Amino acid sequence: MMGNLIELGPLQLAIATLLVVAAGVVSIALRLGVERRLGIAALRTVIQLGLLGLILERVFALRVPALVVGLVVLMTLFAAREAVARSSHRYRAIYLDSWLALAASCLVVGGVVTQLVIGVEPWYEPQYVIPLLGMILGNSLNGISLCLDRFLDHLATRSAEIELRLTFGATRREALGGPLRAAVRTGMVPIINAMAAAGLVSMPGMMTGQILAGSPPLQAVAYQIVVMFMIAAASAFGAMMVAVTAARRLSRPDGSLRLDRLVAKNS
Question: For residue 106, what are the contacts with CB-CB under 8 A and spacing of at least 6?
Fold first, then answer.
């Protein structure tokens, strides 16, 4: 043990693994068909987190700004890929738009939180910067993914409604306003649900981690509030930015849609 921190070893991790194995066995017994996906997800979790742990140990030890910035850029690239991966439709610049939305929300919100709220010194201190920006990216990609999927699906399946509004004299902003609002609201659902349930139904991860590490509960609560607000702002900015950018990519100045640029994922 280190202070109040209980260290976990191979035996404890093996016991935790049995929980996932048990879920897979139940899936096989009930013929649900989720055991393969669950197994792949579990394997990816172990490999990815293991590699991240090794990388972070090195980055924390060296404390070099270039390494911190490089790791954050790499994280944004992977986040952009994951944000687009589950969208049912694509367009040519979708990966670029996703990356720009993630990078912008990460830079603005992450910068405010690390430099003004927490006051990290030096500005690149990896112990604070990387975990906080990682939380921003992880939650923003969920919001962007849901937002993109909802907006692009609306354009593909209900384009006639948009064209009808244009026929009656609506501007591009008016014709696309409904789909944009619906898409952004969809992207905000996860974080709004998490904020509504925090403290009543669930004890969020940041707070739980700090309490397990021995931090005073009220200090853990303060950090969790900052994190929840940080994630909410980043998710909102990211979803709004990617939705507006996609709308401009897929429509002309007069509002008419450019559906030739929109393709189904399996095409």
Answer: 72, 76, 133, 136, 137, 140, 234
Question: How many residues can be counted in the chain?
Answer: 267
d(CA 230, CA 249): 28
- pTM of the shown model: 0.80
- SS3 assignment, position 234: helix
pLDDT 10s digits, 10-32: 898 899 999 999 999 999 998 88
pLDDT in tens, 124-155: 898 889 988 988 898 889 999 999 999 999 99
100: exposed, middle or buried (Cβ count in 10 Å: 0-12, 13-18, 19+): middle
Cα 189 to its chain centre, rounded Å, is: 12
What angle in degrees, to the nearest 10, is found between the helix axes of 217-249 and 205-212? 150
Residues 108, 42: Cα–Cα separation, whole Å: 33
Answer positive or negative: Cα dihedral of 68, 53, 101, 232.
negative
Strands (E), the chain: 89-90, 263-264
Residue 243 in tokens: 């939705």
Do 252 and 78 touch, CB atoms closer than 8 A? no
The token duo for 217 is 């509960």
